[in-house]
Amino acid sequence: YEQEIQDRIKHLCYRIPQSEVAAALPAVVEREHYVDLPQKARKIYTELENDFFTIFDEGEKILIENVAIRSGKQQQVCQGAVYDDEGEVQKVHDEKIDMLTALVEDLGDEKAIIIYSYKHDLERLRQWRDAPVLRSSLSESKFDKLQSEWNAGKHQIVYGHPKSIGHGLNLQGGGFNMIFFGLTWSADLYDQAVGRLARTGQKASTVFVHRIVARNTIEDGLMLPRLATRKQSQARFLEFFENYQRRKNRK
Question: Which of 9, 70, 79, 183 is most exposed by smallest CB count within 10 Å?
Fold first, then answer.
């Protein structure tokens, strides 16, 4: 019915060709920066993957009820900290923090939006470097003020969650680097977050998207390159998952 709808409303609408839209937008360059899980973190990750259960040195434990919860806990381990059964945060490594430090140093004076996934990500990030957070819990006036300050170049770093900054914000004035400290399963949230910088009005010719990925984990499949259709993306993810399972079973 899509073509029929378009035919009926075409006298009411002006449609800009996709080629013209693309020509007005900056290029997007995506880069992956890999970290290796240290031995302790790898042990926890593997126990969660194989046994749905792990116990920390202090006696705290994680018992997983299903595969969906397992993938979330595995992703948390990749990030560097995980919630145990009591809701307490158990830190397991700083590999991503170390990579983030190197990335920010390489950027020099260039500014960056850093994307996080979990509340414990944000807590650890703000211990690493305190910076403002664009989040939906802010009042409208504070949110608008921070958005304006970023676009005016007043902040070197701003933190954001893709659900809070993914739609409706114009952040292209403050910089052209986005760093995914935390990754996302959602292609829509990912595209919308990147679109806060890669949009009309961006003065830089290229927007750089940096993704910090834990090697040989489910994160290898979280940040598959953006494809033309969601059907292709789904097929690409299923292919990744099958290959990941085969590699795991050979070990």
Answer: 9
113-142 residue pLDDT tens? 999 999 999 999 999 999 999 988 888 899
What letter would DSSP give residue 3? H
Based on its alpha-carbon atoms, the radius of gyration of the chain, rounded to whole angstroms, reads 20
- Do the Cβ atoms of 160 and 114 come closer than 8 Å? yes
Question: Is residue 166 over pLDDT 60?
Answer: yes
CA distances from 137 to 46, 53, 59, 87, 117 (A): 36, 34, 35, 21, 16
Instruction: Name every residue whose Cβ is closer than 8 Å to that of residue 190 and which is 6 or more positions away in sequence.
Output: 162, 180, 184, 223, 226
Encode burial over 150-183: b for 16+ CB neighbours within 10 A, e otherwise.
Answer: bbeeebebbbbbbebbbeebbbbebbbbbbbbbb
Please list the alpha-helical segments (H only) found in the chain.
2-9, 18-24, 39-51, 67-79, 95-107, 119-128, 140-151, 162-165, 187-194, 219-222, 230-250
